[in-house]
Design brief:
Blueprint: H1 8-25, H2 28-44, H3 48-59, H4 68-75
Length: 89
């Protein structure tokens, strides 16, 4: 086991090299799916308020009529779920 990394810099370099190898093996569809899954996971960990603020900050032009979050909320207003959401969080 003498070839184990001896410090954080070596471990980081191994991680970067392996990441490059994995990335080279992935086709466009695999990359797209990975990014999609990562974003779903990232946004799912946000509270409702954080998600709304994030979407407004990243997507709105500043024009009051240009509110992507409101548009997205309108798109799903009739979608029902068996588990209600606690809107205090």
């Amino acid at each position: 086991m003498s070839n184990l990394p001896k410090n954080a810099a070596q471990l980081d370099a191994i991680i970067e090299q392996y990441t490059d190898i994995v990335l080279e093996r992935m086709d466009y569809q695999a990359l797209e799916q990975y990014v999609y899954d990562s974003l779903i996971d990232y946004y799912s960990k946000m509270s409702k308020v954080e998600l709304k603020e994030h979407i407004i900050e990243m997507e709105n032009s500043g024009c009051p009529e240009d509110n992507l979050f409101d548009e997205l909320a309108e798109n799903v207003k009739d979608l029902e779920d068996a588990i209600p959401i606690d809107y205090n969080g």
